[in-house]
Amino acid sequence: MASAVPDAMERPHFIGIGGAGMSGIAKILARRGAEVAGSDARESSTADALRALGATVHIGHEAGHLADDATCVVVSSAIRPDNPELVRAAELAVPVVHRSDALASLMTGLRSIAVAGTHGKTTTTSMLAVALTGLGLDPSYAIGGDLEGPGTNARHGDGDIFVAEADESDRSFQKYEPQVAIVLNVELDHHANYASMDEIYESFEIFTQKIVPGGTLVISADQPGAVELTARVRDGAAPATAEDGREIPEGDRATAEDVRSARDLKIVTYGESASADVRVHRITPRGLTSEVTVVLDGRFLTFTVAVPGRHYALNAVAALAAGVALGIPAHNLASSIGTYTGVKRRLQLKGEAAGVQVVDSYAHHPTEMTADLEAMRGAAADSRLLVVFQPHLFSRTRELGKEMGDALALADASVVLDIYPAREDPIPGITSEVIIAAARAAGADVTAVHDRESVPDAIAGMAKPGDLVLTMGAGDVTDLGPLILARLSSSRPPS
After folding, report:
1. How far apart are CA 244 and CA 105, in angstroms?
2. What is the pLDDT of residues 438-468, one digit of tens each?
3. Class of CATH domain 346-490
């Protein structure tokens, strides 16, 4: 089993070390004995956790933060070329390594599972991490969110399995060579990097081509994009370009069948479709949990998923199929998946005050929003569902603002904040009004709130005992949950 630190990673410096993906790699390297250092824009619990592991974490970005003896600088696609630490790395001739390459190096020599898809990656990766740990297999994992139980997004284990969330947003998932790859769904997103669905399909096809010979692709039999990808993988033409990007002369190209035969790729489909290899027979909602029954190898298997919603139940089935592909007994794995209690920001209950429950959701794409709102609608029963939504990225709002507005129509009332820019500069004419107008056209009750600090008062004025409040988005809207609860508590009438 490989767990040594690669030479280039002995003294890594992470720019943006507090990010979900970056911090996970940094934690694993620190556990393996590397001298980890890095910088981030602000203090955080993640920075404190890294320091507890022996890492040096600077706040702010300055050239002096990069040590002269750093063996590499690790960056994500969000780091701009003029970052002073990146500029200093060029002056010192310190190699710059993309986050995905760093993660790929950590998986070398291990049996790896890479979880991809436009939605559901973090949840599915987390389910596998928890289930495999519960079975005593001591896996390593790198996830885009903190698990509820361990409270961390990464772990270095002594077992021979590595579970990783595979990010398609910047094509970085093409760097991995997993034994098992999961594709949950394929939709158009990340509009700054993909101009069309054809580009998305091409990117996912390259990802599947990196599965090791004899490996397995676990893919949805229900989601249209995944079905199309399956058809392309099975029947599409072989790649027209070599790994170095040069075009292969037409006469020299292998056929798709030649490629499949050489790679010996096994495809396992899962879902509610009658043709699925792992077929979902029934999903039974039970409050904030679900009971799932699947047909696997001709036998019925029933297990519990401790988070609400059909989409989370299907994620659990994908995790089950992937574990079985690694040779783990299905019954044992299914029982262990039932111990998964959630990931922070994925329908995470933040608390209750004045008879009002507050739940946090990371959903920011219309499909995710609809799935989580439907799940919460089912959990809320006859109660009202109030949403605080913060759009994420100007480009996503420009392309999908109408669909976001349509999704908000599933709530009884919504508060919509200004767009969280993240790594993007503003786009003229693109504001939250795009979403608000679409939501109102769909019959939704929507209020625009431009001052984020006034949201707790706005919700306190709307909420009644028995209501469920859902904070939703990929930005800092998550910080509002505790503030809303505090405001609701202060308005509780004396007993």
Report:
1. 19
2. 999 999 999 999 999 999 999 999 999 989 9
3. alpha beta
C-alpha triplet 309, 315, 319: angle, nearest 5°: 145
* Range 126-129, long-range pairs (CB < 8 A, 24+ positions): 126/340, 126/342, 126/343, 127/315, 127/316, 127/319, 127/337, 127/340, 128/163, 128/319, 128/322, 128/323, 129/155, 129/163
**Highest mean pLDDT of the ranges 94-103, 169-178, 182-191, 369-378:** 94-103
In the chain, where are the structural domains located? 7-97, 109-337, 346-490
- Report the candidate in 166, 23, 167, 17 with the shortest Cα–Cα distance to residue 83: 17
Query: How far apart (Å, rounded) are the C-alpha atoms in residues 477 and 391?
Result: 9
Alpha helices in 220-362 (DSSP H): 224-235, 256-263, 310-325, 330-337
List CB contacts of 150: < 8 A, sequence separation 6 or more: none
CB 326 within 8 A of CB 179: yes
| pLDDT value at residue 167 | 86
Q: Is 9 exposed, middle or buried (0-12, 13-18, 19+ CB in 10 A)?
A: buried
Q: Name the β-bridge partners of 300.
A: 295
Catalytic residue positions, numbered = 121-122, 165
Quick check: helix, strand or coil at residue 414? strand
CATH architecture of 109-337: 3-Layer(aba) Sandwich (3.40)
Q: Which architecture does CATH list for 7-97?
A: 3-Layer(aba) Sandwich (3.40)
- Nearest partner of 27 among 147, 206, 183, 127, judged by Cα: 147
Whether residue 40 has pLDDT greater than 70: yes
Q: Is the model's pLDDT at 237 over the cut of 50?
A: no
**Which pLDDT score, from 0 to 100, does residue 162 have?**
97
Check residue 374 and give its pLDDT. 85
Q: Does the pLDDT of residue 287 top 90, yes or no? A: no
Tell me the one-letter amino acid at 356: V
Q: What is the mean pLDDT of residues 219-237?
A: 90
